[in-house]
TrEMBL record:
Residues 10-75 form the RNA polymerase sigma-70 region domain. Residues 106-157 form the RNA polymerase sigma factor 70 region 4 type domain. GO terms for biological process: DNA-templated transcription initiation. Belongs to the sigma-70 factor family. ECF subfamily. It comes from Evansella cellulosilytica (strain ATCC 21833 / DSM 2522 / FERM P-1141 / JCM 9156 / N-4). This is RNA polymerase, sigma-24 subunit, ECF subfamily. The keyword Cell membrane does not apply. The lineage of its organism: Bacteria, Bacillati, Bacillota, Bacilli, Bacillales. CDD domains: Sigma70_r4 (cd06171). InterPro entries: RNA_pol_sigma-70-like (IPR039425), RNA_pol_sigma-70_dom (IPR014284), RNA_pol_sigma70_r2 (IPR007627), RNA_pol_sigma70_r4_t2 (IPR013249), RNA_pol_sigma_r2 (IPR013325), RNA_pol_sigma_r3/r4-like (IPR013324), WH-like_DNA-bd_sf (IPR036388).
Length: 172
């Protein structure tokens, strides 16, 4: 693979890979390192790419494997503060920025508390906006399982969010 082609692929996919990994590990430096590792593995194993699947699906699978390998080495598995990851626009008022940060931070905090498979499927389907087929390919699941686990994960997330709202209302 010529260096220009590698650079083009890196430019095209690095932000998406980085954001996926960041959502999984919650640490910017670790996400940067794992993103680099993902592209190194992609380069080393480029002959293994099969044209039947999309390149982005194959690359996210590599990122997932790198991330899982990293998480397995962590003892204990930590929960990370997603509120550091929120973005705000210049048009937002101060109040809107605070509310948006709090809401997104709480959503990501609740996602981080889900089981690993629920967390992964929500990140891939709802945050990365991958199709059911792409998600199934990455996770090695059937499309039916992706639908079922996504539904269960969203129900669990809704339950967690409702409980959080109920607790806040009780405190007030």
């Amino acid at each position: 693979m010529p260096m220009e082609e590698f650079d083009e692929l890196y430019f095209k996919y690095s932000d998406r890979i980085y954001s996926y990994i960041l959502l999984m590990v919650g640490d910017k430096q670790i996400a940067e390192d794992l993103t680099q590792e993902t592209f190194v593995k992609m380069f080393r194993n480029r002959e293994q790419f099969q044209e039947q699947s999309q390149f982005s699906t194959w690359l996210i699978s590599i990122a997932r494997n790198c991330t899982i390998d990293y998480l397995r080495k962590q003892k204990p598995l930590f929960l990370w503060p997603f509120d550091r990851l929120t973005s705000i626009t210049a048009k937002d008022t101060v109040e809107m920025k605070v509310e948006k940060n709090e809401a997104v931070g709480e959503l990501y905090r609740q996602i981080s508390m889900l089981k690993q498979k629920y967390k992964e499927v929500i990140i891939l389907r709802k945050i990365q906006e991958l199709s059911i087929k792409e998600t199934a390919d990455i996770l090695g699941w059937s499309e039916g399982k992706v639908k079922m686990v996504t539904h269960r994960a969203m129900e669990k997330l809704r339950l967690h969010m409702k409980e959080e709202v109920d607790v806040h209302e009780t405190i007030r």
